[in-house]
Specification:
The structure is a single chain. The protein is an alpha+beta fold and 231 residues long. It has seven helices and six strands, in the order H-H-H-E-E-H-H-E-E-H-E-H-E. Strands 1, 2, 3, 4, 5 and 6 form a six-stranded mixed β-sheet that branches. Strand 1 and strand 2 form a beta hairpin. The radius of gyration is 31 Å and the shape is elongated.
Length: 231
Amino acid sequence: MTAFFGRLWIDATIAISFLREGRIQSLMITLGVAIGVAVIIFITALIQGLQTNLIESTLGSQAHIRLVAPDEVNLIAPSADDTLQLIQEDKRPQRLRSINNWQQITDTLDQLPLLTAVSPNVSGPGFVRRGEALESVILVGTDLARYQNIIPLDEYLNSGELRVGADNVLIGSELAKDLGVEVGSKLRLDTGQDDGDSSPSNNLSNNFGSNLSSNSAVVNIAGVFELGVRA
């Protein structure tokens, strides 16, 4: 042990002598090491910050789990015993439809301890018109109180109030810019749906605006939001 510490003392003495003899060189080496360490720390912090911001902007503006209705498939009769059945099948086109018994499913999901929030939504394509301007949009109907637990829309609201239903809607900032509208402006929505459709999807979509089960409706812009994610 004594020999070990004696060797360390000799090495330290040689190192100190070298540093004293070439002070400028020692200063440059020390400065270079310090700058290198500082750059590594800066780049590491920058990458971690960008990663955190990317995750927050991506996952913070959408639900982590989505339940959708199963795809519609063709019903094929089973083949008879001791026979070989050759089938040429054309897949069925998929249409917008709601989940059967979605109210009961929502109640069941509310009781799962692993889920922090559940919000039934309905969405579909549509058109919004203002004067001669026409834009294709995605219409989303939701229970605002539940939806707030997943995406805090009040934090993304640029102007207006967080209010939907009774002819009031929220629109994105890019759409508001393209149409030249602001809070209080009127828009005409065209859902392209048949009149008289009383499916659960259309019942829920009334939370987005008034009478969206009909082909068109005039709505008032209650607020403008920006989630920070653009397609």
